[in-house]
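User: Hey, my collaborator sent me this sequence without any context and asked if I could get a structure. I don't really work with proteins. Can you help?
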Amino acid sequence: MGKNIISGYALLYGSLYDMGGYSERIAAGALNGVSFSECRFLFNHDINYLLGSVKAGTLTLKADSRGLWYRCELPDTAIGNEIATLVSRGDLNQASWGFSLSASKGKEWSADGTILTIKQVKKLFDCSVVTFPAN
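Assistant: No problem. I've predicted the 3D structure and written it out in structure-token form, which is a compact way to encode the shape of the chain:
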């Protein structure tokens, strides 16, 4: 049986995301210096649905000029095969990411308090294929 691989962007720099009550955007360079070595690829940010990891070589992450790109080799497991089917049908077609911010310079609010700009990420926990992404 062939390998099931999914890839795409977990985030795009500069895009405004509706967070309910305010909008958020990720500044270009927000991932500079961030280690991806402990990052996992999950379904809906749920640690019970592990699909890949950088450490195991089944997840590749790259911060490029557009945003955070991922490539995950899905496992030959029930959840891996289900995700592959949902992605190939187009039912599941979005991604997200879990992170923490640098305390001193991680974020900046617009003067009117409607836009939060993420300026520096401290740690990347996960990338996830998701049903409903925040950003």
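In plain terms: The mean pLDDT is 94. You can pass these tokens on to your collaborator as they are.
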